[in-house]
Structure formats: structure tokens, C-alpha cells
Amino acid sequence: MKFCANLSFMFTECATILERYALAKEAGFKAVETGFPFGHTLEQVKMAKESAGVEQILINLKTGDVSKGELGVTAQPGKENEFRENLQVTIDYAKAVGAKKIHIMAGKLEKVTSSNWETYEDNLKFAADVLKQVNLLGVIEPINQHSVPNYFLSDYERAVDIIKRIDSAHIKLQLDIFHLQHICGDLSYNIKKLMPYVGHVQIAQVPNRNEPDSPGEINYKYILEQLEINGYTDWIGLEYKPVGNSKDGLKWINNFGYSL
């Protein structure tokens, strides 16, 4: 198992995402993933990542003002140009830090119509073509309605159907076990069923999104074994909120028989 720190959730003891690169390295991580680094230039982010000496696995699509709940316009008719501009900016950042994966966030909508689904799929088709040219992977992630009410994509079946129709090696599924448990549970069966479409995995305990060994619904020692059994060998993002100090909370990795 290869674990990467999610700097949007971990090491928040530091005020900026730039400082968290170094903290992740100090904690023993070889790799990280991040949300889009709002407020920081491409050069600043590249320097922070390179100074820390870590690999960057994934970056989230530029989405707008996250503090206002703006999580993308991928499913909004009339905002196709904004989506394309955000995609290009994110590609530039991804290339600068060497990230090979971009999480294409769908956005939040209070009322969903068929035109939203058409726009979403059309934008993903466009993204697949652009990402193919630069050899990057786009991943889409169903997000549960408890954590993010009105998030557009919260259905694994629909996500897989779209991935099948687009039929591109550059659009795959981001399988966050935290969201999978919230949305449909039945983890062993669904991991096996979804694995052919998976491009990235993330983990956190349910319901409080803390360390995998914290009290909750998921037996992560078993689930990590299931991911291996079903052929997943890529990076696993630790997208959880540490109960206390991020570094101290990493004891579960050794306790589960793994290492950084």
C-alpha cells in the first residue's frame, strides 16, 4: 500500500498549504495530494513541493470560492467556458508539480435537470480529449449528501455509466471509501464491482472522517486488504481530519502492518 497525505485535510496546524508540504515530508510521506491551492501562484506551489522533496499525485480542479461552497461548474449549462478555463489553469498547476491526476469536481446544484447531466457529460468528454493530449488522468468522485448537501454527483451507478459512455482511459472513478460507505455501503462487493473503473482511492473513517483506526463503521485493516486483493496498487489518499496532531495520528499505518 502506498499512502499520500491530503494537504487540504492534514497538517492544518500550519496556516497555508505551502507549509504543509514540508510537514508531510517530515512526517515520512513520500507523496501528497491537494485541493486547488487558491491564493498561491504556480511558482509558489512548485517551489514548496520541490523544496519538500515529495511527489504530488493529484490536484483538485479549480472550482471557485470554496469558502462560499463553490465546488465547480462542470454540470452548469452556460458555464462551459468557465469550466474550460478552470481545467486549463489546473492542468498548468498539475504539470508544474508533476501531478498525473486531476479530480474534476462536479459542483453543487439545488435543482437538477436533464440539461445538467448533458452538460456534465459533455464537459467530461471535452476534458478527456484535452487530458489525453497532455497525458493526464481526470477522476470523478461521487460525494455523499450528508457531508456536502446538493453536491451534483452522489451516485456510483451514474458515475460508472458516464465513464463507460465516454470510454476514455483519461476519465476514471475516484473511489473514496468514506463516501462509498455513506452512499451505498456493502463495501466488499462494491470495491470489487467498481475496481475496473477506479483511477484513485481515498480513505477516512465514517461518520466523523477521522483516522482509519478511529471509532467508526469501517474495518480499514480488512478494507485495505480488499483493495489489494482486487488489484489496486496505486496511491491511496489520506483524506481525513486528524483527531489531534497529524503526525501523531499516523500510528495506525504501522499498526496495520504498513509503512510510509
Automatic annotation (TrEMBL):
Top enzyme class: isomerase
GO annotation terms (biological process): glyoxylate metabolic process
GO MF, one example: hydroxypyruvate isomerase activity
Alphabetized UniProt keyword annotations: Isomerase
Lineage top rank: taxon: Eukaryota
Record: active site: 141 (proton donor/acceptor), 239 (proton donor/acceptor)
InterPro entries xrefs: HyI-like (IPR026040), Sugar_Epim/Isomerase (IPR050417), Xyl_isomerase-like_sf (IPR036237), Xyl_isomerase-like_TIM-brl (IPR013022)
Coiled coil: none
Catalytic activity reported: 3-hydroxypyruvate = 2-hydroxy-3-oxopropanoate
Presence of keyword Glycoprotein: no
Enzyme Commission code: 5.3.1.22
Database matches in Pfam families: AP_endonuc_2
Domain (Xylose isomerase-like TIM barrel): residue spans on this chain: 22-255
Family as reported in the entry's similarity comment: Belongs to the hyi family.
Function comment: Catalyzes the reversible isomerization between hydroxypyruvate and 2-hydroxy-3-oxopropanoate (also termed tartronate semialdehyde).
The name this protein goes by in its record: Putative hydroxypyruvate isomerase
